[in-house]
Amino acid sequence: MTKIIFGTDGWRGRIAEDYTFDGVRRCSQGFADYLKVEKLAKRGIVVGYDKRFHAENFAATAAEVMAGNGVKVWLTDRATPTPTISYSVVDKGTGGAINITASHNPPEDCGFKVRDPGGGAIAPEELKKIEALIPDKVSEVKQLPLDDALSDGMIKIFDAAPAYIEQLKRLVDLEPIRNAGFDVLVDCMWGNGAGWFPSILADGNTTIDEVHNIRNPIFPDMIRPEPIHPNIDQGLQLAKELGSDVVIINDGDADRVGFGDENGEFIDQLRSYGLMGYYFLQVRGEKGPIVKTISTTKMLNKLGAIYDVPIYETGVGFKYIAPKMVEVDAMIGGEESGGYAFRGHVPERDGILAGLYMLDMMVKTGKKPSELLAELFDRVGPHYYHRIDTYFDQERKDEIQANVAVARPKRIAGLAVIDIVTIDGHQFVMEDGGWLLVRFSGTEPIIRVYCETTYGDRVDQILNDGMKIAGLA
Question: pLDDT at residue 473 above 90?
Answer without folding.
Answer: no
